[in-house]
Amino acid sequence: MAFPLSDIVDALSGQLHGDGATPIASIAPLESASAGQISFLSHPKYQSQLTASQAACVIVAPAFEEQARARGACIVTDQPYLYFARLTQWWKRQHAKPVRHRIHPSAVIDDGAFIDPQACIGPLCVIERGARIGANTLLKARVFVGEDCVVGERCILHAGVVIGADGFGFAPNDGQWEKIEQLGAVEIGNDVEIGANTCIDRGALGNTVLSDGVKLDNLVQIGHNVHIGPHSALAGCAGVAGSAHIGAHCTVGGGAIVLGHLTLADHVNISASTTVTRSILKPGHYTGMFPIDDNAAWEKNAVTLRHLHALRDRVKSLEKAMALATASATPLTPANS
């Protein structure tokens, strides 16, 4: 189904340069877009692709308006990437199919659970006693929501998400492990999106909390009693150990780990594959990883790293000896020179 370019501008605004009757059949990346497709330029490093692009229309920032107009039709907007995001939402709404079942017949829902009438529950979901699902929230196939857990409004939980499995709590007992019953729940705010096969453990005593607007990628692990502040985002395979506190507007890169009981301040950005071993109380971008190398060189560097502390002590000793020698040296004067 194609739409005239003017329909997009009418819905999303922006300054159109070109023929509003141009049909747009789909959205495509800048480098591969062809006639009948719309694309966008959001970063200057892709500027070289703009002139060569065959897209019917390109969404650009004002800085690239002249170049875009020389190429063909364009929509000028202050935030092209945000415009692109809203375009995908609009496009999906235009192609949406009617919902056959608000609650799929195969879903298993305890009589003691509350499901808002505007929520949508997919195939093979399980919702236990005391759980609450808010308005306009979508649970896709095989989502599990445990006892007494709360999911707010306008949330999306992708296939295989587990909300409210037991947290990892065991007490040592004469060489064995004694289970600590997890008596808390999970509390999820509004406008949260959780990727496929992500697991969020219930709290041991208090609740595990995901605040409004949190975004979690696929295969993320959130331990018991973790608190994630509003509008923070964690990429795939990230892990947060129990009782860690992540502030608002933070990002955690793919495969990164935040150890338990640590605090990240608001606006902290953690690079992919970083292990956070201490609390970070100042906003900023933090990285902690050992650079990749061929294995032989990596092993040599790893051995050197093991001796780094001793090397530091040797350097300090040498610096001290040099300082003493300098202090005791007799300066040259005209009389003894």
- CATH classification, class level of the domain at 161-286: Mainly Beta
* Biggest sheet, spatial arrangement of strands: 8-11-14-17-22-25-28-31-34
Structural class based on helices, strands and sheet pairing: alpha/beta
Distance between the termini: 95 Å
Largest sheet features: 9 strands, parallel
Write down the overall mean pLDDT.
95
Residues in helices, as a percent range = 10-25%
Total count of helical runs of at least 4 residues: 6
CATH architecture of the domain at 161-286: 3 Solenoid
Salient structural properties:
alpha/beta; Udp-n-acetylmuramoylalanyl-d-glutamate--2,6- Diaminopimelate Ligase, Chain: A, domain 1; 9-stranded parallel beta sheet; UDP N-Acetylglucosamine Acyltransferase, domain 1; single chain
Give the structure's gist in a few sentences:
It is built from six helices and 35 strands. The protein has 337 residues and is an alpha/beta fold.
Overview of this protein structure:
The model has no long low-confidence stretch (mean pLDDT 95). 29% of the residues are buried. Among the domains are: 3-94, MurE/MurF, N-terminal domain (Udp-n-acetylmuramoylalanyl-d-glutamate--2,6- Diaminopimelate Ligase, Chain: A, domain 1, 3-Layer(aba) Sandwich), CATH 3.40.1390; 161-286, UDP N-Acetylglucosamine Acyltransferase, domain 1 (3 Solenoid). The chain contains six helices and 35 strands. It is of the alpha/beta class. It has a nine-stranded parallel β-sheet with strand order 8-11-14-17-22-25-28-31-34, with no helix packed on it. It is flat, with a radius of gyration of 28 Å. Helix content is 20%, strand content 26%.
